[in-house]
Design a protein that fits this description.
heterodimer, A: 113 residues, mainly beta, six-stranded mixed β-sheet, five-stranded antiparallel β-sheet, B: mainly beta, four-stranded antiparallel β-sheet, 11 strands, 52% strand
């Protein structure tokens, strides 16, 4: 059972554009929502994360928007660059349940020149 | 900081043999490490949670006698795939949970180990 649903499965954006990836969850006990970036043949790298006490977090070109009532969160990549082409995973975890991450299925992002 | 290494980065073995994969947190202590499996173009699937000094907790459907996990120290966890078969071929990734002041319970991932069973 997929506890975190991620969309779209793939995304093509022109250089300089905004990439938006969405995730939804059901378990209201989740209290940590990270985004990971993964390049082929590599392990995932933590990009940015948010906790439910804030609605938005920005780090450089990457922004997480969090809607607690809708149980949704999204990643915005501003001024997308070809080097951002990778697979992005959203995840969620629960502090009092071992911190195990529940991953979305991933979004393959291609930024064209 | 917060670097996790895995060894080996890739391994090819014959069917029926056992393979050990090491996961180390290089610059922090990790009381909890996680092992994931990832098939091509798919998401990460949690196999087990490993706590230092105690038995690992396996996810439903993961054979604990086939995937042996040992977390002997605060910086090292090992995954042994016993009697490997071609269907065990996959990308195995570990992660380590860092504690304050390194981070607030964030998980840092290793670079992964590509296992190919012939």
């Amino acid at each position: 059972q997929q506890q975190v649903k991620q969309s779209p499965q793939s995304l093509i954006v022109q250089k300089g554009g905004i990439s938006i990836i969405n995730c939804a969850y059901e378990n209201t006990a989740f209290d940590y929502f990270p985004w990971y970036q993964q390049f082929p043949g590599k392990g995932p790298a933590l990009l940015i994360a948010i906790r439910p006490d804030v609605s938005e977090k920005k780090e450089g070109r990457f922004t997480i928007s969090f809607n607690k009532s809708a149980k949704q969160f999204s990643l915005h990549i501003m001024d997308s660059q070809p080097g951002d082409s990778a697979t992005y995973f959203c995840a969620a975890s629960q502090t009092n349940s071992g911190y195990a991450l529940n991953f979305g299925k991933g979004t393959s992002l291609l930024v064209t020149p | 900081g917060a670097v996790v290494s895995q060894h080996p980065s890739w391994v090819i073995c014959k069917s029926g043999t056992s393979v050990k994969i090491e996961c180390r947190s290089l610059d922090f202590q990790a009381t909890t490490m996680f092992w994931y499996r990832q098939f091509p173009k798919q998401s990460l699937m949690l196999m087990a949670t490993s706590n230092e000094g105690s038995k690992a907790t396996y996810e439903q459907g993961v054979e604990k006698d086939k995937f042996l996990i040992n977390h002997a120290s605060l910086t090292l966890s090992t995954l042994t795939v016993t009697s490997a078969h071609p269907e065990d071929s996959s990308f195995y990734i570990c992660s380590a949970r860092a504690l304050p002041p390194v981070s607030y319970n964030e998980q840092f991932f290793g670079p992964g180990t590509r296992l190919t069973v012939l």
